[in-house]
C-alpha cells in the first residue's frame, strides 16, 4: 500500500494516549512519517499527544526530534517529518482524571474535522478505564457526524475470562465497528499474501485440504532474548505472548474457508469460524499435545546470555516458558485429521517466521530406482513470513542423465528481488485502514475469545506446577519439542533449509 493509487486518509485527529512513551517514538511516529512521505496522510491529519509528563507541544516535539536524530533519516523522511511536526500538539494530564478528557473535547471541537482515532499506547490495565472515560465525555459518540475509533494493541486479556471481560467493557462504551484490535502480524505483507496465494491460485487452493495436505507447521523463532522485558515476560510467557494472537492469525489465514468477498465482515466471519473450530483440549489431551521450555545460560549471538530465570525482574523460581510447541487440530470437514504444529520461542538459533505446508506423499512411485530408495520426498510450500519474505515451492524433478533419478528442488521467490519493500515499520497498512475505517486487518471480539479458548487448557495445566524443559540459547528449543512431532513420524522444518537439488 503506497503512493499514487491509494487515496489519502480523510481528515482526522489521531489522539495518542501515552505520547511520551517508547512505543510512540519508536513505532507510531516513524510510521506516521512514512505515511506522510507516501501521501497516505495529508495536511488535514493531525496528532494530539496525551501524557502524564508536564509540558506543552514543544516538550513533546523536542523529545521526538532527539529520538529521530538517532535514526539518521534520509532527506525525504526528514522532509516528511518537518511537515508532520507542524501538526503535532500535546495535552499534559492524568488519563484517569476527567480534566484531560475535557481538554481533548475542547481541542477536537476546534479541530478542522471532528473525526478522531484514539490509540492506547498505555499498559493494558488502563484500556477499559480510558474507553469508559472517553464515552462518559461523549468522545465516542459518532452522532456528531464524524467517526470516533478506538485502537488497542495486544495483550488483549490475560486469559479467556479476562479477554471476555475486556470485550464486554469496551462494547459497553463503543460499537464493535468502532473498535480496532491491532495484531501487528496482520500488517506484514507476507501474512496478507497468504490470502492471495490461496485464493488467486487454482493450483494451490484446489489441493488445500486433508486429501492432499499431510500437516502444517507454523514457526515464529526469535533470536532476541527477554532482555529488559523481564517483568512483562515473566507474567506473560511465550504462549500468551505469541500464540492466541500472532500464530493464530497466521493459522486462520492458512486454514479459513474462502470468504465470499474481501470486505472486513466476510473475512472476519471466516476467520472467526475457523478459530472456533480449533479443538479445545481436555486437561489430559493438553498434557499430550503441548510442551514448553525456558532458555538456560549460554552463548548467543556473540554474547553470554544469562538464563531466563537470572534475567532482571524475572523471579528466580519462575515457571514461565520462553518456548512453546503445540500440536493442534482444526475440527472441520476440510482439516479433519491434519495436525497443525506450532512453535515459538526466544533466544533461538535465528529469527525465522514461516508457515510450511507439507503435502502427502505420492501414492505410488513407478520410477525404476524408486523401490530401492527411500520414498519420494513430499511437496512443500514454504511461506517465509520474515525475514527474507518470500514463497518457496518444493517439488521433485528428474536429474539430468540416462538414469531415471529424481531429486527435490525448491522454486524460490523472494519479495526483495522484485519489489522495494524496505524501510516500512509494518504498521503503515494497519494505520491507514484504521484511518479509512476498514476493519479487515483487525481482530473481532469473537476471534479473540476463540483463540483464548483454545490455549486456556494449556494455561490451566501449566499454572498448576511443573517446570519448563531447559534449552540452550541458539538452539531450536528443548528436546521435548522434537519428540512432540517425531512421535508422529514427522520432523520440524529447518529454517532456510533447501532440498538436496538446491544444494551446491
Ligand atoms: C510482540 C511480542 O507482540 O511480537 C514480542 O510481545 C515479540 O515478544 C514480537 O518479540 C514479535 O514480532 P515481530 O514482528 O518482531 O516478529
Descriptive tags:
single chain; 504 residues; alpha/beta; Rossmann fold; Dihydrodipicolinate Reductase, domain 2; 2 domains; 9-stranded mixed beta sheet; 7-stranded mixed beta sheet; 16 helices; binds 6-O-phosphono-beta-D-glucopyranose
How would you explain this protein's 3D organization?
The chain has 504 residues and is of the alpha/beta class. The protein folds into 2 domains: 12-153, Rossmann fold (3-Layer(aba) Sandwich); 186-490, Dihydrodipicolinate Reductase, domain 2 (2-Layer Sandwich). Helix content is 35%, strand content 20%. Strands 16-15-14-13-7-12-11-8-18 form a 9-stranded mixed beta sheet, with helices on both faces. It has a 7-stranded mixed beta sheet with strand order 3-2-1-4-5-6-17, sandwiched between helices. Helix 10 (237-255) packs across helix 11 (264-276). The protein binds 6-O-phosphono-beta-D-glucopyranose (BG6).
Strand order in the largest sheet: 16-15-14-13-7-12-11-8-18
Based on the structure given, which CATH architecture of the largest domain is correct? 2-Layer Sandwich
Q: Ions, cofactors, ligands: which are bound? A: 6-O-phosphono-beta-D-glucopyranose
- CATH C-level category of the largest domain: Alpha Beta
Amino acid at each position: 500500500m503506497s503512493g499514487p493509487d491509494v487515496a489519502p486518509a480523510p481528515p482526522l485527529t489521531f489522539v495518542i494516549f501515552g505520547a511520551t512513551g517508547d512505543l510512540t517514538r519508536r513505532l507510531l511516529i516513524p510510521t506516521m512519517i512514512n505515511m506522510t512521505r507516501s501521501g497516505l496522510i495529508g495536511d488535514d491529519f493531525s496528532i494530539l499527544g496525551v501524557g502524564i509528563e508536564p509540558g506543552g507541544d514543544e516538550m513533546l516535539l523536542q523529545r521526538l526530534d532527539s529520538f529521530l536524530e538517532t535514526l539518521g533519516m534520509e532527506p525525504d523522511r526528514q522532509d516528511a517529518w518537518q511537515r508532520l511536526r507542524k501538526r503535532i500538539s500535546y495535552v499534559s494530564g492524568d488519563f484517569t482524571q476527567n480534566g484531560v478528557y475535557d481538554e481533548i473535547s475542547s481541542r477536537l471541537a476546534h479541530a478542522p474535522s471532528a473525526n478522531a482515532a484514539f490509540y492506547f499506547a498505555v499498559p493494558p490495565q488502563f484500556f477499559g478505564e480510558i474507553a469508559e472515560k472517553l464515552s462518559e465525555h461523549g468522545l465516542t459518540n459518532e452522532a456528531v457526524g464524524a467517526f470516533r475509533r478506538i485502537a488497542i494493541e495486544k495483550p488483549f486479556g490475560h486469559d479467556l475470562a479476562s479477554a471476555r471481560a475486556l470485550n464486554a467493557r469496551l462494547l459497553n462504551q463503543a460499537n464493535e465497528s468502532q473498535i480496532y484490535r491491532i495484531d501487528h502480524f496482520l500488517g506484514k505483507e507476507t501474512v496478507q499474501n497468504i490470502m492471495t496465494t490461496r485464493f488467486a491460485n487454482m493450483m494451490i487452493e484446489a489441493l488445500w485440504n486433508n486429501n492432499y495436505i499431510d500437516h502444517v507447521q507454523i514457526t515464529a523463532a526469535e533470536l532476541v532474548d527477554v532482555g529488559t522485558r523481564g517483568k512483562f515476560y515473566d507474567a506473560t510467557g511465550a504462549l500468551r505472548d505469541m500464540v492466541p494472537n500472532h500464530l493464530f492469525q497466521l493459522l486462520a489465514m492458512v486454514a479459513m474457508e474462502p470468504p465470499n468477498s474481501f470486505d472486513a465482515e466476510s473475512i472476519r466471519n471466516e476467520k472467526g469460524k475457523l478459530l472456533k473450530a480449533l479443538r479445545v483440549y481436555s486437561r489430559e489431551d493438553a498434557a499430550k499435545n503441548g510442551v514448553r521450555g525456558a532458555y538456560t545460560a549460554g552463548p548467543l549471538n556473540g554474547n553470554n546470555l544469562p538464563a531466563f530465570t537470572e534475567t532482571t525482574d524475572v523471579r528466580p523460581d519462575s515457571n514461565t516458558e520462553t518456548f512453546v510447541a503445540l500440536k493442534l487440530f482444526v475440527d472441520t470437514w476440510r482439516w479433519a485429521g491434519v495436525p497443525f504444529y506450532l512453535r515459538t520461542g526466544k533466544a533461538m538459533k535465528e529469527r525465522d517466521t514461516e508457515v510450511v505446508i507439507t503435502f502427502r506423499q505420492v501414492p505410488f512411485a513407478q520410477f525404476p530406482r524408486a523401490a530401492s530408495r527411500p520414498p519420494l520426498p513430499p511437496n512443500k510450500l514454504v511461506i517465509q513470513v520474515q525475514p527474507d519474505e518470500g514463497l518457496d515451492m518444493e517439488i521433485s524433478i528428474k536429474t539430468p542423465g540416462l538414469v531415471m533419478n529424481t531429486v527435490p528442488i525448491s522454486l524460490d521467490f523472494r519479495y526483495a528481488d522484485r519489489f522495494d519493500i524496505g524501510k516500512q515499520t509494518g504498521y503503515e497498512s494497519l494505520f491507514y485502514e484504521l484511518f479509512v475505517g476498514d476493519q479487515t486487518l483487525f481482530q473481532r471480539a469473537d476471534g479473540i475469545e476463540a483463540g483464548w479458548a483454545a490455549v486456556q487448557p494449556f494455561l490451566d495445566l501449566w499454572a498448576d506446577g511443573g517446570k519448563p524443559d531447559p534449552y540452550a540459547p541458539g538452539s531450536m528449543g528443548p528436546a521435548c519439542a522434537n519428540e512432540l512431532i517425531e512421535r508422529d513420524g514427522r520432523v520440524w522444518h529447518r529454517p532456510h533449509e533447501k532440498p538436496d537439488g538446491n544444494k551446491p
